[in-house]
Amino acid sequence: MKRKSNAGRSSESRPPVKRRGQSGPRPSRKAGKKAKELNPKHFMNEAKSLVQVAYTPSRAIQDMPVDAILLKNMAAKGFVSPTEIQDKSLESILSGADFLGIAKTGTGKTGAFLVPLLHQYLGQKYHNQVLIILPTRELAVQVQDEFDSLSKGTGLKACSLIGGTSVPADIRKLRSGVHFVIGTPGRLLDLAKQGELKLASFRTLVLDEFDRLLDMGFIRDIERIVENMRNRKQSILFSATMTREQEPAINRILDHPVQVKVSDGQSTAEHIQQEVIEVRESDNKFEMLIQLLDQPEFQKVLVFAETKRGVSGLHKKMTRRGLKVGQIHGDKSQNYRQNTLNSFRSGQINILLATDVAARGLDIPDVSHVINYQAPGSLDSYIHRIGRTGRAGKTGKAYTFITATNV
């Protein structure tokens, strides 16, 4: 859902480092095709070519055919109009039909399924109505947070069941009675095998980020879960991509679904100012980064490195300089990563260091800047990285450091 724009403070100051704008550096003739693929100029031009005409919603938030308490909660979150996937999927999901949505992260798909499902189950006294399956713990926590804010005053309750947390605590959550269960496949299946998660009682199944669920090898777990949801009336599936390889699995889960495909989320490039920063042999790259971060407009910054070692090294150096910085990557525990993300969202730290894998799928509002301290190796990675800023119609800036090997 599109939020009301709160204009941040502006600044006339520019980072005192040499950089180029959208035109970028010239690709090296010697490097050939490989250099073109790694050259940020190529990424930037491709990103600009992906810009699409902004979607014009068919209605405002207050005109959506859902309960008044949900409209109130959406307004409290600053939503003024639905996104394309929310607008086009609402009536289909409300009707109870199976649904297939092709939409990438950042297009508002969490709201696209939560709002109509909350409306459907308002006033229900029975528990275990909706099961939502996601590929990662971080995504499950994000959906739980979104549920909590959208469901205020409804009496509906949800719990998240994810790996890395206490199994006895999860069992207590289930026994206390919840309407929505949000989780990752492994933990859900474990609790079902223990007889604590009664899969036969659920009426609605949601599979989010389905392509990632397949890529991460969860298809057998999902099929076991689906087989035991004998009273399932509606299945909702969202995927960023739709390939021939996915079709057999989708056809086994969905029954004549309504299908909606929306713009791929890469249109955010029109809200993002992209620039490169040249690093010469005589330059101190780390000091150039510090000079950037010292500028007052760098309020909430996501910095990418290619490897876990790169992230850890940066974190040590920046901590020594007294910066409020956190890090997330695969070597950190679930609790550590979640606490770090919470600190970044709340403003306790204003710089977050991450690898591509750790940040994939994260929805962090109001990121003012993205910095590619190490240039990504593919266009997909570049698009994903810069897409963390300039969201929900707001403007953002993305900087990419380049060295002689990139030019």
Give a short summary of the structure:
Helix content is 37%, strand content 16%. With 407 residues, it is α/β, with parallel strands linked by helices. Residues 4-37 have low confidence and may be disordered.
Topology:
Elements: E1 2-3, E2 19-20, H1 32-38, H2 40-49, H3 68-76, E3 79-81, H4 84-94, E4 99-102, H5 109-121, E5 130-133, H6 137-150, E6 158-161, H7 167-176, E7 180-183, H8 185-193, E8 204-207, H9 210-215, H10 219-227, E9 234-239, H11 247-253, E10 258-261, E11 272-278, H12 285-293, E12 301-304, H13 308-320, E13 325-328, H14 334-346, E14 351-354, H15 356-359, E15 369-372, H16 379-386, E16 396-402
Parallel strand pairs: 4-9, 4-10, 5-7, 5-8, 6-7, 8-9, 11-16, 12-14, 12-15, 13-14, 15-16
Antiparallel strand pairs: 1-3, 2-11
Can you walk through the features of this model?
The chain has 407 residues and is α/β, with parallel strands linked by helices. The chain has 2 domains: 2-53 and 266-402, P-loop containing nucleotide triphosphate hydrolases (Rossmann fold), CATH 3.40.50; 61-261, Rossmann fold (3-Layer(aba) Sandwich), CATH 3.40.50.300. The protein is built from 16 helices and 16 strands. The strands form 3 sheets. It has a 7-stranded mixed beta sheet, sandwiched between helices. A 7-stranded parallel beta sheet has the order 6-7-5-8-9-4-10, sandwiched between helices. Strand 6 (158-161), helix 7 (167-176) and strand 7 (180-183) form a beta-alpha-beta unit. The chain is globular, with a radius of gyration of 22 Å. The two termini are 39 Å apart. Mean pLDDT is 84; it is low at 4-37.
